[in-house]
């Protein structure tokens, strides 16, 4: 049952589980954090936080490394340990990945092959009700198909569109396969919905990027008709034809929960005055050259609040929203402040009628190498991998609680501070 605006959201947790590929090498956050060697002990730690659900990976690359051979030993340990306990899993099947080495995001057979895997997972764990088949398809398509950071290293609009559409189709087919086993299974679709702002000469590019950020939800919801503002862009890119887009209109898989992943650098500022910015931030749309930087780094930029992003999402699609990732790099004080500010933004959005069913502490075990977008696994990169602590700090090997642990336990506790006190500053800002 979807909670109403006045029902307090659940507190969820999640572990950073990116399994991306750079060239011929795979990078696993689960191995980097040591979780794969401490599964049961880590899960016991997570339960003590009082979370209601845990975003947990059953990753395609790890389970079906050899096509047709399913190795569920890790996930059997994890999901078997959670069992019928107080924390329910939200199972993720692909997290910034391109699939096992025998397929990839630009493989036309990718969706059907992924659906076969999804059904195998559902049959193994028929009691699992919540799934995120593919985390952040748009972000993954950008990094793998537009910017060339991750395999298969595409660098044009056509490869970006093809990878996005194939991931969306894979999600629809995966949920169809899962629901053959569990008709009640819920799609919890995550995406980074950072909004772009910029200087007046870049108004068209800002509009384009703000339309583009919705494409994951729009495709899954069957909204990309010929009247969609990006329909012509998608078909003219060479990555998808009109028939491929019409397929989603005829086969919608509307998310049961719209998941927003929120980071300080998600909101972007586009500036035609490239000389003011580091060359590493320079880009182009083929017509204009500009700098693309985090809005938080530019004094004149007014970065959208999380509350406004929630309300925008709620108004566009209706239904329930969850904040499915909250994380900031920094010391313990900064991480707690970011978490508590997010709770305040959620309450502000709820006070304006948005239905928010959950807020997620991410990442429970911290994260590795995101300062280079998980690309330092490249053999040519001679550097020390950067670690950012989360609710627990694994830098010494064994997870140790950080101040975030108590902050998570306090969230929405019966004796928590009144709701109004947490969002008073947010109201004052808007």
Précis, in short:
The protein is of the alpha/beta class and 430 residues long. The protein has 15 helices and 18 strands. Helix 5 links the parallel strand 5 and strand 6.
Biggest sheet descriptor:
8 strands, parallel, barrel
Q: Helix tally?
A: 15
Distance between the termini: 32 Å
Overall mean pLDDT stands at 92
Strand order of the largest sheet: 1-4-5-6-7-9-13-14
Features:
single chain, eight-stranded parallel β-barrel, 15 helices, 37% helix, globular, disordered C terminus
Task: Report on the architecture of this protein.
With 430 residues, this protein is an alpha/beta fold. It has helices at 29-33, 39-47, 60-63, 73-82, 110-124, 137-146, 157-181, 203-212, 215-220, 231-236, 242-250, 306-317, 332-351, 403-410, 419-429; strands at 10-14, 19-22, 25-28, 53-57, 88-95, 130-135, 186-192, 196-198, 257-262, 268-271, 282-284, 289-294, 320-326, 355-362, 367-368, 387-388, 392-393, 400-401. Strands 1-4-5-6-7-9-13-14 form an eight-stranded parallel β-barrel, surrounded by five helices. It has a four-stranded mixed sheet with strand order 8-10-12-11, covered by helices on one side. The protein has a two-stranded antiparallel sheet with strand order 2-3. Strand 11 and strand 12 form a beta hairpin. Helix 5 (110-124) packs parallel to helix 7 and helix 6 (137-146) packs antiparallel against helix 7 (157-181). Residues 415-430 have low confidence and may be disordered.
